[in-house]
């Protein structure tokens, strides 16, 4: 039976956040709100949960997931970042950006780009997400709540529950979500490259 927790957007109830974090720790798949869209999430090291998300979204093995971090101290654990890029990322977060960076050994191989050995990381500006990450004490493995055949991510918690309540373990209802995805910035080379223009502005990353 899928749990549904209605959590306050600005002042998340600690008891409910703790409950959601425990579902993740136990290997569950959740749907939760971010500063861009609703997303699927699971424990970083849980291959079975990752495979469930792939099956729900009908994703192939080549689809790469994102690590959602609470702050830049976590980002440094999972990615190799030079001082210039770190300052640029710090000045731009939390916000709806996904940064492509060289992965460290802490990142499971299945989360890395097979050839480039990169990983997508982000620090979202969403009170529910940040509270959940704080309770977990580690990042979430995440993928947009966009289903095969749909043009846009799901944004209505009622419809999300109707469609997914038999497939996930927990749905966090944080109100209506957005439909525009994150801006993706490739930070691996000498200069940032805009991979996808999304919700966040790109000016700071354009020379």
Set out the fold topology.
Blueprint (H helix, E strand, L loop, with lengths): L2 E4 L7 H12 L4 E4 L4 E6 L3 H11 L8 E3 L3 H7 E2 L2 H10 L4 E7 L14 E5 L4 H10 L3 E5 L12 H8 L5 E4 L9 E4 L6 E4 L11
Parallel strand pairs: 1-9, 2-9, 4-7, 6-10
Antiparallel strand pairs: 2-3, 3-8, 4-8, 5-6, 6-7, 10-11
Helix pairs in contact: 1-5
CATH topology: DHBP synthase
Number of helices: 6
Overall, the morphology is: globular
Q: Which stretches of 5+ consecutive residues score pLDDT under 50? A: none
Assigned CATH architecture = Alpha-Beta Complex
Q: Give the CATH H-level superfamily.
A: DHBP synthase
Number of domains: 1
Going by helix content, strand content and strand pairing, the class is: alpha/beta
CATH class: Alpha Beta
Oligomeric state of shown chains: single chain
Mean pLDDT: 93
- Strand composition percent: 15-25%
In percent, how helical is the residue content? Answer: 25-40%
Q: Main beta sheet, described? A: 11 strands, mixed
Radius of gyration over all CA atoms, rounded? 16 Å
Write the H/E string, N to C. EHEEHEHEHEEHEHEEE
Keywords:
11-stranded mixed sheet, 6 helices, DHBP synthase, 11 strands, 207 residues, single chain
Protein described:
With 207 residues, this protein is an alpha/beta fold. The chain has one domain: DHBP synthase. Helix content is 28%, strand content 23%. It contains six helices and eleven strands. It has helices spanning 14-25, 47-57, 72-78, 83-92, 127-136, 157-164, and strands spanning 3-6, 30-33, 38-43, 66-68, 79-80, 97-103, 118-122, 140-144, 170-173, 183-186, 193-196. Helix 1 crosses helix 5 (127-136).
